[in-house]
Specification:
two-stranded antiparallel sheet; 209 residues
Length: 209
Amino acid sequence: MSQILELCIRLVASALIGAVIGFERELRGKGAGIRTHLLVAMGSCLFMLISIYGFGGTDRFDASRVAAGVVGGLGFLGGGIIMKNRHVVGLTTAAGIWVTGAIGMSLGCGMYLLAGLCAFLLMLCMEAMHFYTVKFGERQVNVTLSSDSQKVLEEMVKGLGKQVNQFSLSKKDGRIILDLSLLVKKKEYPLELLNRLNSFQGVQLESLD
């Protein structure tokens, strides 16, 4: 097999594996889906190929320098996914993109077995464990509510008790806005939480995610 064909196979393999991982995220309704994961895996693979084969004939050749730059760039991309409206969300997706980049880099190095095993474990973590861990522990829910009275919102925070992780008050268009971060049991369905929040008098629910 010629070297150029081998490199093309690595690039295509990284794109396919990235698409498979992104497909699982897209089924979950996440913002980073097939295209994002495909591009991350393929781009990481190409960077790795460039670092190994693009500068081999030059002085001071060090393939690890490009790899280190890719790792840092993926961390920056993950940070953009995590921060949303002053809340921390998308940690699993950001971590998945980071690992997808590593898979692409390993394919760029020709480590097919390691890349395949890592992709399998990644899918196992994100897909299979989604069903078996969903009912255990707590999850964070970000809620925005509004009211004409700050006292009503303060009483609501007291009523929710230890479920309140953090909160902030602001004012917009003459109404008091309450941003809440709640810790709720994973077995509690979103509709149950919605009904519980709507049970507070004088409070309007603006958003829930």
